[in-house]
Amino acid sequence: MVAVAKTKSRTKLAEQAHFRTLRLPSPFQPRLEALAAQQDWYDWAGYKAPHALWDDELEYFAIRSQAALFDISPMVKYRIEGPDAEAFLNRVTLRNVTKLKPGRVHYTAWCDDEGYVLDDGTLFRFSADRFRLCCQERHLPWLLDSAIGYEVSVVEETQEVAGLALQGPTSFAVLRDAGFKGVEKLKIFDLAEFPHEKGSVTISRTGFTGDLGYELFVPVKQALSLWDRLIEGGKLHGIRPMGYTALNRARIEAGLIVANADFVTGDSAIRTDRLRMPDEIGLGFMIDPAKGHFNGRRAILDARQNKTLKHVLVGLEIEGNIPAEHAIVYHRGKREVGLVSAAIWSPTAKRNIAIASLQRPYGDTVVDDLWVEIYAMRELQYHKLMKRAKVVPRPFIKLDRRTANPPGER
């Protein structure tokens, strides 16, 4: 009986310890905690991350009219190096890595052997044989298995590298006034090293907002000094730290997709009808049939040739001003043909917009007479609204300042 009582006691203590276990702190956690008036946190890849710090509306408008600072440290990061690094990445990702020059970044994706998307992300090329792959989900076992036969090392460096996204029309001015001399030379998707303290910071002209913006990466020991440097440089340019809610609004306006939000990744899907090929989620432009073999190549090209693609990801403009998030899409108000995965009333586009996955031919060749079913709360009661929708191009907004050379100051 004593042994049983001790076992139960240890079990109870273990359960209590489990619930006391905190999510991983970001390298910028001291700065985020000091600003988190709302204390509205969520789990991002095991890290504690803010939905909003103070006011998500003002944080959004900082992206479009000032400069917004977003912690991207929880983003999964892999260091890929070695004589065969280019060949390895060309084998596992969709885009042609031989065309990616040192000092450049490109957006890419990777698939399983059946051609279903496992994830998407950005590939940074620092030199001929040194890369960084950033993405939403963790893929280390798959990457290591895929590296067999290549002279290449693959190491996850998520906890070693701190990252910040600086986005908005005054983001260049912030960097300039923070002392990053020569940053004006960076064109869209360029990257370069800049001195910081006794080391360096990698700055790329990239982002997830469709606006002028940059991403900065440093060793975690230099994280707080980088934050303080940017805040000081941005005092006259309206810099404002932000959370994910504001970023999500901006990325929807930019027509950008999120893994396991707008599509289900191939290794996490439970039902086979949730799997998607690149052409079914708007990533077909990445595929280079002229390059050598890559994961899923045969299945992807066969689906194109045989016209067996089943879905299409589209942008929708919806009448009214009530966001249609997670609304069902109908043809002629009767036949269910798809689902909205992301939707907002766009303050910049002044339109009710959405990203939706539809069953072909709807959204592909059949684009007329589409409707969405929205449930709107009115005086503590839901009311069903059927609103017309039309297929429109993505991005929903296109800002010239994103690609302007040299970058504007405001």
UniProtKB/TrEMBL annotation:
Cite a single GO MF annotation.
transferase activity
- Residues the entry annotates as binding substrate: E215
Q: Which UniProt keywords apply?
A: Transferase
Domain named Aminomethyltransferase C-terminal: residues: 313-398
Question: Carries keyword rRNA-binding?
Answer: no
Which SUPFAM superfamilies does the UniProt record give? Answer: Aminomethyltransferase beta-barrel domain, Folate-binding domain
**InterPro entries (alphabetical):** GcvT/YgfZ/DmdA (IPR028896), GcvT/YgfZ_C (IPR029043), GcvT_C (IPR013977), GCVT_N (IPR006222), TrmE/GcvT-like (IPR027266)
- Record carries keyword Transferase: yes
**One Pfam family from the record:** GCV_T_C
Positions of the GCVT N-terminal domain: 57-270
Recorded coiled-coil stretches: none
Question: Record's PANTHER family?
Answer: AMINOMETHYLTRANSFERASE, AMINOMETHYLTRANSFERASE, MITOCHONDRIAL
The identity of this protein, by name, is Aminomethyl transferase family protein
Organism annotation: Mesorhizobium denitrificans
